[in-house]
Amino acid sequence: MTNIRTAAGRRRAMLLGITAVVSLAGAGALYGLLYVRSLDYGRRCEQGLVSGGGRLLETGASWLPPDAWCRFEDQSLSTTPFWALLLFYALLTAVVWSAAALVRALRPRPDPGLDWQPGHGAPHW
Questions:
Q1: Between 119 and 80, whose confidence is greater?
Q2: How many CA atoms lie within 13 Å of 59's alpha carbon, on the beta-carbon side?
Q3: What is the pTM of this model?
Q4: In a designed cystine with 38, which of 20, 24, 53, 79 is the match (CB 3.0 to 4.6 A)?
């Protein structure tokens, strides 16, 4: 029985590790794509290459997630679509969850046994 649990634990740790790596690679690739897309967006707005509505009020950028925007009198335009933001944060969440589960799988808590009850410590004789 111990060998089956050990093999299952190793398989679970391997799958969690693969999930963490693939999620991190996906989040990194999406981050790179969004970053490249937002590099010179503010400059293009200031030069009039991006048509908004009315006069340009301000441009800005953020680094997490990489985004650039231009605010015009009538509307605001951004380089990052909403679906990309959802996908980016979902991938980051998958990285955190799978990494935490991997740490827990590799370092499980000791089993207190059947006689342990909450609020009662080991007897001190």
A1: 80
A2: 16
A3: 0.66
A4: 79
